[in-house]
Amino acid sequence: HLVWPDGDLGNRVGRSVSQDAFGAMWFGTSDRAILRWRNAAFQVFEPPPSSTPGRDSVVCPGEDGRVWIGTVQDGVWCLQDGQFTRPFGPEEVGTVARALFLDSQRRLWI
């Protein structure tokens, strides 16, 4: 795991890292935030409490700008244009998603 230097990232612990098609680095963290490193700066994406993806996130960026997020406690989420959504509906709440993969046909493997 990664531990960030002191500063505006707080005490977040990185749990996963992946690079998107545009060269940005995406980090899933232990505190539900998703971080993007682009142009020598971090941007923090924190979901609103009403739609909180669980802790210990893994990230999988797609070529279309979406970032898929897998969690240990709360299934799969999607981050697109700064908004968090649940792509598969409430029946998958509680699903454990420790790893995600997009194949060449853009199918998401959980």
Topology:
Elements lengths: L1 E2 L9 E7 L5 E5 L4 E5 L2 E5 L12 E4 L5 E4 L5 E5 L2 E3 L15 E2 L5 E2 L1
Antiparallel strand pairs: 1-2, 2-3, 3-4, 4-5, 6-7, 7-8, 8-9, 10-11
Commentary on this structure:
By secondary structure, this protein is mainly β. 0% of the residues lie in helices and 40% in strands. The protein contains no helices and eleven strands. It has strands spanning 2-3, 13-19, 25-29, 34-38, 41-45, 58-61, 67-70, 76-80, 83-85, 101-102, 108-109. Strands 1-2-3-4-5 form a five-stranded antiparallel sheet, with no helix packed on it. The protein has a four-stranded antiparallel sheet with strand order 6-7-8-9, with no helix packed on it. The protein is globular and about 40 Å long. The two termini are 21 Å apart.
What's the short story on this structure?
This protein is an all-beta fold. It is built from no helices and eleven strands.
Whole-number mean pLDDT: 81
Order of helices and strands: EEEEEEEEEEE
- Strand-residue proportion: 35-45%
State the helix count: 0
Q: Indicate the percent of residues in helices.
A: under 10%
What gyration radius follows from the Cα positions, in whole Å?
Answer: 13 Å
Alpha-beta content class = mainly beta
Q: How far apart lie the N and C ends?
A: 21 Å
**What spatial order of strands do you see in the largest sheet?**
1-2-3-4-5
Globular, elongated, flat, extended or rod-shaped: what is the shape? globular
* SS elements, strand count: 11
Spans with pLDDT under 50 lasting ≥5 residues? none
Give a short account of the largest sheet: 5 strands, antiparallel
